[in-house]
Design brief:
This protein is mainly beta. The chain folds into two domains: 25-318, YVTN repeat-like/Quinoprotein amine dehydrogenase (Methylamine Dehydrogenase, Chain H, 7 Propeller); 333-415, Sandwich (Immunoglobulin-like), CATH 2.60.40. The chain has two helices and 37 strands. It has helices spanning 2-12, 315-318; strands at residues 22-25, 28-34, 41-47, 50-55, 59-64, 72-73, 87-89, 92-96, 98-105, 113-124, 126-130, 133-137, 143-147, 155-160, 166-172, 175-180, 183-188, 196-202, 209-213, 216-220, 226-230, 238-243, 251-255, 258-262, 268-272, 280-286, 293-297, 300-304, 308-313, 333-334, 345-352, 356-363, 369-372, 377-379, 382-389, 396-404, 407-415. 47% of the residues are buried.
């Protein structure tokens, strides 16, 4: 359970080191908000120019990051108690709080208000939101699939019990990937009301977190580092690479071809996973607290670091050009797909001249939407990438549609089998 997990980790190493970041490569400390030893900052999510923090001991916090080097904590009564994880989707935030799933309306970004609540039977510790469903990691009580079409009245529609404690969940396409205390489980969720376990790979110790991109799952496995698993065959997931981190790999976040690893007592690492079978180090920074989660915003890493929110300049490590006189694109654009035709996945690049919500859909020749792409979400201005997964679709022609504000762009693709 989450509390046992937290206590066990905190017993291993006591105290907090000096506030200045040490032992770094291509990463520079630029600022922080210190909350003190009574805090337990466990998760961080971004929406517009705000960060939402899950501080298990002090509640849901909101931070203005319009000036990244000087983040500013907004004064408000915490809208949710004991948050463990925070995930944003559209105008809502989803917050597992150990007893269930708190759903907040963030139409007014700086003033989250409760929209609804799902009481889970176990201990909700993680959530992944895709389209109309929230996939809740309910620890001893397995995977709970909740219909959040109406946030004010979330309804459980599917359950997969587990013999192992479930710590984290990620969803890609028609599959959910469960980080369990015995390994990684692959679950078919093509029918949300009837999830089916398809495959499992045993790992050397508890899996704390998982992130997925296409045919590969990236698993944070504590003292056993990061394990990269080929999940192209869901019935037989296969480990293809190991990256041995210096600390305890606890959280993992994917940004394009980079993996940001929260390494607990050794800060965070940035790994290049352009070739998932050969990950290599791009940068790292030891942090003063205990790193649980990392998110990247315009070249800056924001770290949920137990007693603080840390801000780190990662521009050199991630290859962002800081001094470009005109770094933002002038127009909305969606590049031609590559490859096209394709037989499994194809990739688009797109640009945004200003931040906003972007929706991607896949349509058949009759104009019927056959899939809302997982890449739909909030994006900052700049250049981005979206992957179209053809798994489960019939061969033929399709149209990818990108909608951002009042702009709609369409590109044709051909799926081969």
């Amino acid at each position: 359970m989450f509390v046992r997990k937290a206590i066990a980790i905190l017993m291993i190493i006591a105290g907090v080191s000096s506030a200045s970041a040490q032992n770094s490569l291509r990463v520079r400390y630029v600022g922080m908000i210190e909350f003190g030893n009574q805090a337990f900052v466990h998760s961080v999510a971004v929406l517009d120019t705000l960060l939402y923090l899950a501080d298990y001991n002090s509640g849901f916090r909101v931070v203005n990051i319009i000036a990244p080097a000087t983040p500013r904590l907004l004064e408000l009564d915490p809208p949710a108690d004991h948050p463990i994880k925070i995930v944003t989707s559209g105008s809502y935030v989803y917050v597992p709080d150990y007893l269930g799933l708190w759903i907040g309306d963030v139409t007014d970004r700086a003033n989250p208000v409760r929209a609804g609540y799902y009481n889970s039977p176990g201990h909700a510790v993680d959530v992944f939101v895709l389209e109309d469903f929230a996939y809740v990691a309910d620890n001893d009580y397995g995977l709970r699939i909740v219909d959040v079409t109406t946030p004010a009245a979330p309804q459980e529609v599917g359950v997969l019990d587990s013999a192992h404690e479930l710590e984290a969940v990620a969803v890609w396409g028609s599959y959910a990937y469960l980080a369990e205390n015995a390994g990684l489980r692959v679950v078919d969720v093509s029918e949300p009301g009837n999830p089916v376990s398809e495959g499992f790979i045993e790992l050397p110790e508890k899996a704390w977190d998982v992130a997925v991109d296409g045919n590969f799952a990236y698993v944070a496995v504590g003292l056993s580092g990061v394990r990269i698993v080929d999940v192209s065959n869901p019935e037989s997931p296969t480990e293809v690479a190991i990256y041995d981190t210096p600390g305890r790999a606890y959280g993992i976040t994917l940004v394009d071809t980079l993996a940001f690893v929260a390494d607990y007592d050794k800060g965070f690492l940035i790994l290049s996973v352009t070739d998932p079978t050969h990950p290599h180090l791009r940068g790292f920074c030891d942090t003063p607290g205990k790193a649980y989660e990392v998110t990247l915003v315009n070249g800056y890493a924001f770290v949920a670091d137990y007693s603080n929110l840390g801000v780190y300049d990662c521009i050199e490590a991630v290859g962002v050009t800081k001094d470009d006189p005109d770094p933002l694109p002038a127009t909305f654009s969606l590049s031609p797909a590559f490859p096209n035709p394709f037989n499994s996945r194809t990739t688009f690049n797109f640009t945004l001249p200003r931040p906003g919500m972007v929706k991607f859909g896949l349509f058949d020749p009759m104009g019927r939407q056959v899939r809302r792409l997982q890449s739909s979400g909030w994006y900052f201005a700049g250049s981005h990438r979206v992957v179209v997964d053809g798994e489960g679709l019939a061969a033929g022609g399709y149209v990818v549609q990108m909608q951002a504000g009042g702009n709609v762009i369409r590109q044709g693709v051909v799926l081969l089998k």
